[in-house]
Amino acid sequence: MKTSILKNQQYQTCIDACNNCAECCEACCTECMSNTEMAGMMGRCMMMCRDCADMCRMASMMMARGSEYVKQMCRYV
């Protein structure tokens, strides 16, 4: 349940998608790390997943606070 009032409701769908993407990327990275047989070969995938999760979280936060740079950030997410 959401308890805060979003300043820019127009972004809510995108915020939800970014948060979901970040969760999926973190789960993928964790899965890759837990598979000891594949961990060495999955290093690049794990790094990309972590980078993607960080970018999605940042975009979500920027939309939530109504940053003037949100359009520039979302161009890359």
Describe this entry's structure for a reader.
The chain is mainly α. The chain has one domain. Helix content is about 65%, strand content about 0%. The protein is built from three helices and no strands. Helix 1 packs antiparallel against helix 2. The protein is elongated and about 45 Å long. The relative contact order is 0.18. The mean pLDDT is about 85.
Number of helices: 3
Into which percentage range does the β-strand content fall?
Answer: under 5%
Largest sheet report: none
| Number of separate strands | 0
Coarse structural class: mainly alpha
Q: What level of helicity do the residues show?
A: 55-70%
Distance between the termini: 25 Å
Rg, alpha carbons: 15 Å
Report low-confidence residues grouped into runs of 5 or more: none
Domain unit count: 1
Mean pLDDT: 86
Q: What sequence of helices (H) and strands (E) makes up the elements? A: HHH
What would the principal axes of the Cα set say about the shape? elongated
Chain-wise SSE layout:
Elements: H1 12-34, H2 43-65, H3 70-74
Helix pairs in contact: 1-2
Task: Provide a brief overview of the structure.
With 77 residues, the protein is mainly α.
List its salient traits.
77 residues, single chain, mainly alpha, 66% helix
